[in-house]
Structures are given as C-alpha cells and as structure tokens.
Amino acid sequence: MFATRYLPFVGRLMIGLPFAMSGLSKLGAYSATIGMIGAVGLPFPPLAFAVAVAIELGGGLLLIAGYRVRYAAPALRCPPGKHIESDVEERPQLSGDEIVL
C-alpha cells in the first residue's frame, strides 16, 4: 500500500526538487545570472533569464505537484543554455599510449 501510494510522489520530489531549487537560486542572484548569460553571448539576457526561471521553477513545481507531468517533464529535459558550446574547450586528442587518470 505504501509503495503504490507514496513512491511516485517521492520519485517526482527527487527529480523536481533540484530543478525548483535551481530556479529559486537564479531568482536570488538576478544580476549575477544576467551577467553570466550576457557573458556567454546570448541576446536579451533578461528574456533568457525569465525563460530559464519559468521552465526550471515552474516545471519543477509542476513535477513535484504531479500536475501536467506529461508536459512539464519534456520541458525540463532540455533546460535553456545547455546547447551553448561557445565556451566549451576542445579536449586534446590522446594517442593510445597515454594513460588518463
């Protein structure tokens, strides 16, 4: 009885809580987040900030509550900013002799 009643909520809580906390931390550090978004080179940093907070905080809370999970989960799958590769450094190519620790 316990597993079928409360385990889905525990699972949604464990998945949705990090997203909601990330959205709240963005709200708490507005200027720093806007600065980081602008440093990456995205146009309209305030708009990108609003979209990121809406998706992370709103989607996380919807997931925790279990409301419209089929729509919230795909939105959380690809958070904004994860596709930006302008600051990603290329890894050096290793030959077969080198040991990577």
Question: Which secondary structure elements does this structure contain, and how are they paired or packed?
Answer:
Layout: H1 2-28, H2 30-40, H3 45-65, H4 69-77
Helix pairs in contact: 1-3, 2-3, 3-4
Low-confidence stretches at least 5 residues in length (pLDDT < 50)?
A: 83-88
| Overall geometric form | elongated
| Percent of residues in beta strands | under 5%
- Compute the number of helices: 4
Order of helices and strands: HHHH
What's the helical proportion of residues? 55-70%
How many domains in all?
1
Protein model, in words:
There is one protein chain. The protein is an all-alpha fold and 101 residues long. The chain has one domain (2-76). Helices cover 67% and strands 0% of the residues. It has helices at residues 2-28, 30-40, 45-65, 69-77. Helix 1 (2-28) packs antiparallel against helix 3 (45-65), helix 2 (30-40) crosses helix 3 (45-65) and helix 3 packs across helix 4 (69-77). The chain is elongated and about 50 Å long.
